[in-house]
Amino acid sequence: xxxxxxxQVKELSKQFFRIVTSLGQFREGNWxxxxxxxxxxxSQLQRSIYRYSDDLLALSSVLKLKEVxxxxxxxxxxxxxxxxxxxxxxxxxxxxxxxxxxxxxxxxVVSKSPLAIVSSLTELTQDIGRA
Length: 131
Hints:
Layout: H1 6-29, H2 36-67, H3 71-88, H4 92-111, H5 114-127
């Protein structure tokens, strides 16, 4: 099997989540007719599928980060935009929000967590109005 791309893994995560939702609807619709052991088994399976959905979503972020030609180039671009945003705003709340997200990005980079880096970059770009 060929390697999956970040968007493909993200879509798979979404499909797993839809299955979790469908299982929940099934359980709710058949609540009175299911035995205790059937409830427990379905609940256990639902939780397992949900965890896989969550793990796949995290994996898609890691793959996305690896697909970027250069994470450093992206971070440099974002930090340049942060600098410009800080120079152009007069709103204290906005400056605090941006600075807090830069702290989160710094922590993500230091911890070498691809998922946290991607998440921090996304939040930062949204806060500075790029995304």
